[in-house]
């Protein structure tokens, strides 16, 4: 491991963000990954806030989303305007979080 990479990872930990190398991000367009993410989305009751199709009260379909930000929001949770999304890091593996990320990316607006 190079010293520069270690510094980036440590910096990410210190500021509470996940540092990713590009090769660590799986193929989020893989249909099997998207399907597995959809199954997790339904099984973990994400539709309660996001709607079963992602168009609920907290709509995921009308936004341009960054996969690394989605991963971090799922892993560590997030709070915005009094609404709190729970952290899933202790419940899901990183692979499962990437699957959920793939599903969310598949239903969100993609940058043009």
Name the descriptors.
5% strand; single chain; two-stranded antiparallel ribbon; 5 helices; 112 residues
Structure description:
With 112 residues, the protein is mainly α. Helices cover 47% and strands 5% of the residues. It contains five helices and two strands. It has helices at residues 3-14, 31-43, 47-50, 67-76, 94-107, and strands at residues 78-80, 83-85. A two-stranded antiparallel sheet has the order 1-2. The radius of gyration is 14 Å and the shape is globular. The model is unreliable at 4-16 (pLDDT under 50).
Residue stretches low in confidence (pLDDT < 50, at least 5 long) are 4-16
Alpha-beta content class: mainly alpha
The major sheet is characterized as:
2 strands, antiparallel
Number of separate helices: 5
Span between termini:
36 Å
What's the β-strand tally? 2
Strand order of the largest sheet: 1-2
How much of the polypeptide forms β-strand, as a percent range?
Answer: 5-15%
What string, H for helix and E for strand, traces the elements in order?
Answer: HHHHEEH
The residue fraction in helices comes out at 40-55%
Basic shape: globular
pLDDT average, as an integer? 82
Computed over alpha carbons, the radius of gyration is 14 Å
């Amino acid at each position: 491991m190079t010293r520069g990479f270690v510094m980036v990872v440590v910096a990410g930990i210190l500021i509470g963000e996940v540092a990713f190398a590009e090769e660590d991000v799986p193929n989020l367009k893989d249909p099997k990954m998207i399907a597995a993410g959809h199954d997790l989305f339904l099984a973990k009751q994400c539709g309660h806030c996001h709607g079963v199709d992602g168009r609920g009260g907290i709509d995921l379909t009308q936004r341009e989303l960054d996969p690394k930000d989605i991963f971090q929001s799922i892993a560590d949770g997030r709070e915005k305007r009094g609404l709190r999304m729970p952290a899933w890091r202790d419940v899901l593996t990183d692979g499962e979080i990437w699957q959920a990320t793939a599903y969310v990316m598949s239903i969100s607006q993609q940058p043009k």
